[in-house]
């Protein structure tokens, strides 16, 4: 879609109150949006489909936690340090710009200049290709190198500085308890790992899930609904044994073809076109790291198609090495093509042990799985033992403290102390800031073999994460159509399950006998009818309901009064059929309750009278 | 329920992970809670029932807006000034107490003292009865009068000071854009009034609705789930013509009996017991102010009974005059009785024109309904007219500005100017900080009669507001039971539509042939089964699923392998029947899809073999 198409799309969305900028009568706040009734209903439908497709189908453990999150939690997770964008300030106007966006925007414009030196051209293209992996100092350097100024005023900007994107607040009356609004829904799932494992009867693998709002204090949000400061997310944390990342249902999806833009393809000089490949093949050949990650990618693909996204405007793009978090094993972004370019809507990452480890370290609480071993395992390791009597006599009340510090030494350190003891007949070590010297008659360090009856391990986490708000915008973008014969007549071809309203029902004119017939029909069935009793022409009613993406319309006309038949109209083809109320409702019923799209319009209406539309 | 019962209730809720304090491994944050899988599913069910009962049934316009809300909006709504609690600080320990809670707690304790002077006794009782309406200075005075100290340390406390209960943050990079987390979901609905009216084709009455999280920075939250700092709300704003507050569907509910504790009853010396009365009668006799308010009270009552609350533990308590906002016409709180006393869970208020007026004033945007009059109305008023030619000659480029300032004068002011003009032959007035003198040949002010073809008015707002989190806690409280013969065996008697899991399915033992039979049954029907394949006795499985409030259990046993029959167990009666898988599923099906509770257990299982339970 061109940006003209985008303007038309966004004006239709606003005209029909799918959404509106929030607080508009107060001048609005950029990056905040209200969903109006059709947008809200569509969002409900998407959430419901997500819940069915993932939580119910996979028997996931859903939890719902607060958005307010204490400082310590997000410090441990790395968000306090790393959830930042770099921003440049115009010291005169006090406007702020996101450094990476500014560089992209400026270099793209300069590339259009025909007089640009070929060498410079290449350098700018390289910068653009790798900017997603730029560090802060890369950004500072690039801003200087290309002398990038304020794009509006051409003022010289301050050098980029990091800006934490979390909204900060305080909990309680004292103002001492610093907290943030969560940037994602995942942390609550990690923190509850032990409880989740417990209600899953200690069994692994299992998945948890959360649906809810998250927050990101964007520096200067543009791109409409795609860059919201408050947005709906859905996240899955799948906990799995690091030694076995197979998925019990992988066979069910292994034939699913997904479009993969691998790291290798992105590094090549070829055009960056994804390759369609069965996910089974992708895992077998090592393109995708493991079965569980592959399983979710296939399920994500199926989910998006159910929502009505254009399958040719979707790809999984693998993270480049410099883009991926250091702890992650593999990561693929589900991206959708819109008039704003390719938009990251979903992330599928194997995050290994990172999350559980950081929270366990920070709190001192163990977040592990204890697996009973059928055959106990021998383990040989260095063991330090203390002669308690002599130790107590020498260190008195400090004895316990020193002993426990010694017993917590790692195998590496024990090895060094063992060497030291052999060499010097004593060992020295630091605890509580003092140096303690321990004679060889007080301790022994020896290699011993023990039998282990349980295996204790930190599970790995595979995380499919969904930006539902962004996905909804892409549904709008992909389903927006104009009529072949009239550019001004637009409509949304939402799938039946996504459409805010399934059927509108109206009358051909204002005859006084019509309303009672109408209410009779509405009461017949529970299908979510919406009555359109506006005082306007039937053509305008059709046009309005097309813009709302309502798949079907029932019209009551004068013939209805004679033979109780009504017309049923289909949105995309604009074809109409006529039948009794019962027949028409039965047709709609079939199509609404049809998870596998077996009942097409043609098949379902075959027995009814086809109406010629002028 | 005694507080012993409460401990048991809360430990069961935590054991089965209905909820847990958030961030528990970090030490927790009081007033923040996570819902675990059963709690989350129960919450989903309650939200779904609310949506069906209100939004779908009444064709309401749902909107979904951000929690982040700019300062100006909440300044206009009055929350910046008035959404406060008074707190007392212990200057030594730095602990904070809510002044009203502290007074209540202390006086209640002192009343138990047998030596208290009868006059003091009466005064303390009076204070307790009216404390909900106390102003800040009432609280300061009472704290001093009774010399109320820190209940833990007995330290003297600082005098109470107001504390705003909204969480504060900043939007954007500059830190200049002060914002709050919304304390309720209503404001977004008021701000969108014009758009809502527009998509409702300009017709009134109509209702909008929002479901979402709101926030309240409680000073020192106790009372568990009832005093959360972040909580789920659902709010309806019903916009109505102030001259006609009838409700088109009132007749459908007028016989609904609701328990009313009127203002009058609360002021009487009688015990404060509510009176059951048909809502039609209550509106007719003026006990409830109007039909629309009464309609919602009846619908709220129906809703709560569907959720399984005990009808004898519910009342509508009318606000006392000093409790009610100055602009409100009438207000009734829906209160539920729990071990913490009567808890306000729902508010039903007629807020008149307050909300639309304050936002209209602050923004200068009109938020009104324009109604076309069938017969135009005469209206006589003072009209100011300007001699444009002379005016232009005199004021030059300032002419337009001064003219428009004159034309916007209210009728009151015009009257004064009219007098002034008659008396002095000129008028003076202030605009843009300067005093302008206008001679009588430049303007005229005269009484004129005009014909009005439209009526323009600010609609009144009737607001039913639901604390869904609190309602959920009350469901837990009201549905918690212990078995007659064993105090330690507890269960939740949730209604089928509320229960997190409808049916669990399990096997009598670990026979290797059972799992395939089980998966066959699970696949037969879409009913939300939960498999319990834990490695424990059948008795323990029943006990666990009782604690989860699962209404039905299917057990596969050795007879199943012979004749394909299974047992079906009902939670409350613990009765069991046996039938073929098909029969049993058909029984469950009937009961699950039975909105009017027609299919009782006895009726539905009449044809099946009754199993004697030991």
TrEMBL record, chains A, B:
Its main location: other. One of its GO terms (biological process) is mitochondrial glycyl-tRNA aminoacylation. Residues 7-369 form the Aminoacyl-transfer RNA synthetases class-II family profile domain. GO terms for cellular component: mitochondrion. GO terms for molecular function: ATP binding; glycine-tRNA ligase activity; transferase activity. InterPro entries: aa-tRNA-synt_IIb, aa-tRNA-synth_II, aa-tRNA-synth_II/BPL/LPL, Anticodon-bd, Anticodon-bd_dom_sf, Gly-tRNA_synthase/POLG2, GlyRS-like_core, tRNA-synt_gly. It holds the Pfam family HGTP_anticodon. Keywords: Aminoacyl-tRNA synthetase, ATP-binding, Cell projection, Cytoplasm, Ligase, Nucleotide-binding, Protein biosynthesis, Transferase. It catalyses: 2 ATP + H(+) = P(1),P(4)-bis(5'-adenosyl) tetraphosphate + diphosphate; tRNA(Gly) + glycine + ATP = glycyl-tRNA(Gly) + AMP + diphosphate. Its EC number is 6.1.1.14. Belongs to the class-II aminoacyl-tRNA synthetase family. Homodimer. This is Glycine--tRNA ligase. It comes from Saccharomyces pastorianus (Lager yeast).
């Amino acid at each position: 879609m061109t940006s003209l198409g985008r303007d038309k799309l966004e004006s239709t969305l606003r005209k029909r109150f799918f959404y509106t900028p929030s607080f508009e009568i107060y001048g609005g706040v950029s990056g905040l949006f209200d969903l109006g009734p059709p947008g809200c209903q569509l969002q409900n439908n998407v959430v419901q489909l997500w819940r069915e497709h993932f939580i119910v189908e996979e028997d996931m453990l859903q939890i719902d936690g607060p958005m307010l999150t204490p400082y310590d939690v997000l410090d441990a997770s790395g968000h306090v340090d790393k959830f930042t964008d770099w921003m440049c300030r115009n010291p005169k106007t006090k406007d702020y710009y996101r450094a990476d966006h500014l560089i992209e925007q400026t270099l793209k414009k300069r590339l259009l200049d025909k007089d640009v030196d070929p060498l410079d051209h290449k350098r700018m293209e390289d910068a653009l290709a790798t900017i997603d992996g730029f560090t802060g100092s890369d950004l500072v350097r690039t801003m200087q190198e290309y002398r990038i100024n304020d794009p509006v005023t051409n003022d010289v900007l301050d050098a980029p500085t990091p800006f934490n994107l979390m909204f900060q607040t305080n909990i309680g009356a004292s103002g001492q308890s610093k907290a943030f609004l969560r940037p994602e829904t995942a942390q609550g799932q990690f923190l509850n790992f032990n409880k989740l494992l417990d209600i899953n009867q200690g069994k692994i693998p299992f998945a948890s899930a959360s649906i809810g709002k998250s927050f990101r204090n964007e520096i200067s949000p543009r791109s409409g609904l795609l860059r919201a400061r408050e947005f709906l997310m859905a996240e899955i944390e799948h906990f799995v044994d690091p030694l076995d990342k197979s998925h019990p249902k992988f066979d069910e999806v292994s034939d699913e073809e997904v479009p993969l833009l691998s790291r290798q393809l992105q590094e090549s000089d070829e055009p960056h076109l994804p390759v369609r490949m069965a996910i089974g093949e992708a895992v077998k050949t090592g393109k995708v790291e493991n079965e569980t990650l592959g399983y979710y990618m296939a399920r994500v693909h199926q989910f998006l198609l159910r929502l009505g996204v254009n399958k040719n405007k979707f790809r999984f793009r693998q993270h480049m090495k410099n883009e991926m978090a250091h702890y992650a094993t593999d990561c693929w972004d589900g991206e959708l093509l819109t008039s704003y370019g390719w938009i990251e809507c979903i992330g599928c990452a194997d995050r290994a042990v990172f999350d559980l480890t950081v929270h366990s370290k920070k709190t001192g609480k163990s977040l592990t799985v204890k697996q009973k071993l059928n055959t106990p395992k021998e383990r040989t390791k260095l063991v330090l033992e203390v002669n308690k009597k002599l130790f107590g006599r020498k260190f008195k009340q400090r004895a316990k403290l020193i002993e426990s510090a010694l017993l917590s030494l790692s195998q590496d350190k024990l090895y060094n102390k063992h060497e030291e003891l052999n060499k010097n007949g004593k060992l020295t070590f630091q605890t509580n800031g003092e140096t303690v010297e321990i004679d060889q008659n007080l301790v022994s360090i020896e290699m011993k073999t023990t039998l282990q009856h349980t295996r204790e391990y930190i599970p790995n986490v595979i995380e499919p994460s969904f930006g539902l708000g962004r996905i909804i915008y892409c549904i709008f973008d992909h389903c927006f159509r104009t009529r072949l014969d009239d550019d001004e007549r637009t409509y949304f071809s939402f799938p039946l399950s996504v459409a805010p309203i399934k059927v509108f029902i109206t009358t051909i004119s204002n005859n006084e006998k019509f309303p009672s017939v109408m209410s009779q029909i509405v009461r017949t069935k529970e299908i979510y009818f919406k009555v359109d009793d506006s005082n306007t022409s039937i053509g305008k009613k059709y046009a309005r309901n097309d813009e709302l993406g309502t798949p079907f319309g029932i019209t009551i006309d004068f013939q209805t009064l004679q033979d109780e038949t009504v017309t049923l109209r289909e949105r995309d083809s604009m074809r109409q059929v006529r039948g009794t109320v019962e027949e028409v409702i039965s047709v709609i019923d079939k199509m609404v309750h049809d998870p596998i799209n077996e009942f097409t319009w043609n098949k379902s209406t075959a027995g009814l009278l086809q109406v010629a539309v002028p």
